[in-house]
Every structure is written in structure tokens, then in C-alpha cells.
Sequence to fold (260 residues):
Amino acid sequence: MQPGLRLRQARERLGLTYRDVESASYELAARRGRPDFILHISRLADIENRGVVPGLHKLYTLATLYHLSPWEIFRWYDVPLEACFHDGVSFEAPRTHTMAAPTSLRIPMKFDPAFDPRRTEMLSRMVEKWGHFEGVLTNGHGHHLYGYIGTNDRRMVPILRPGSIVLVDTSKNRVEDGDWTTEHDRPMYFVDVRAGYRCGWFHQDGGKLVMQPHPLSHCLPEAWRTPEEAEIVGQVAGIVTRLNGSKCTARGESPAAPED
Fold:
């Protein structure tokens, strides 16, 4: 079914005329302070009958007035917003940066009766039913962001490989010199260094924030004045990584340089 026909059916189910929609769109535009939300009768007719694709503001108006989910309307136009995060992961970037959270997380809902949590297993073979949790479960309270480790950033190799995705807890934005005995226990932080981002081990040295790369990375330590030159975004709470990626960065491609 064409998107325009779906929108017309949604309007008719609510008993709205073209004039009703136009009038309500003026009110919405006044409330939001942008004339872009106004949906004129001629434009609405083109959307419903001529296959014209509404712009972002017009789409918001339609979703609001028809009590529809914008995500659903995007799907009608074959724009899978829910897949944006997963599609984005396949397009690598050279620099480390923050990234938008996924709208949902695929998790196992029911395991095979033979599944033994004490044993190492191929998880995909042990799951009878998969489900989706909304991304709000991890991101809605505002304490979590996602970070992407650039393909040119090998400062924490081999613990943190280029192309990895990290979950950042923004409620922990101070360096903790707590009890840790191994490199795997030492907390890592995601840091905004104004010209970019760094992710790895840090320690506070007076008014300076010092990054200590992993010794096997062959990268040099770096230091910034705080808060003028660097600010801790949060502590790394989780890591998703790929092993033996197709674009494994060669040694020496991530020197201690401000422009990287």
C-alpha cells in the first residue's frame, strides 16, 4: 500500500478534513515557533494522491495530528530508522567519536532447555526465541552514551581494538584511583579533548589529565589541561568489538598528535 494512501486512511479514520489538518498545522507551527510545520491543503493533497514525500517538519505534523509514530511513517517510506545504528556500525570512521544509541536491543528471551550457563556455548544455537528491548532501557535515563573507536585509533590495542563500540556511563566523570590489580580491572574513560576524543586509561596529575596508552600499542602518553583542553565524558561500562577486522590499523598510525 502506498504511503499516501496510508496517510489518507489515517486521516479519514479520525474524521479529519483537509481544512481541519491545515488549521491544526497552523496551531502547531505557532506553538513550535516554526512555519515549516504548516501543512497547506495543496501539499496534503499532493502527499496523499501524487506520491509527494513530506519533509521532516511536515512528517512531524502528520504524525502529531494523526496520532501516529514517526517511526511507522518512516517505514512506510522504506526508511528503517530502527536499523540506523546497526547499519552505521558497518561504515567505519577513522576518528574516535560519540554515536547515537540504538533504538532497540535484540536479546534472548527463551533458551533451549539444554542450555547450561556454566558451559561455553554457541549462544545463537541455544536461543529459542529472540526479542527486542527499547534502547531507552540503557539510554533513557541520560546516564549512557555510545562511543566509537576510530579505525586510526590504536592507543588501547589490544584491549580496545579500532572499530569497537563502547557504552559510556556519564554519571562517572571523575578518574577513580581505586583498587585494581590487572589491566582488565583498570577503568577506562571516554574524554572530549576539544579537537576530538580519546578513550582509554587516564590519571589526574594536578591540573592535567594524562592518558596512558596500552604499552603494546607503541603510542605515546598525552596530557591536557583540565577543564580548558579536556573533559571526561564518562567511564566505559561495556565494549562491543570485532576480532581480526578487515581494516586492522598498522603500527604507528595513531601517534600522539592533536589533529588525530
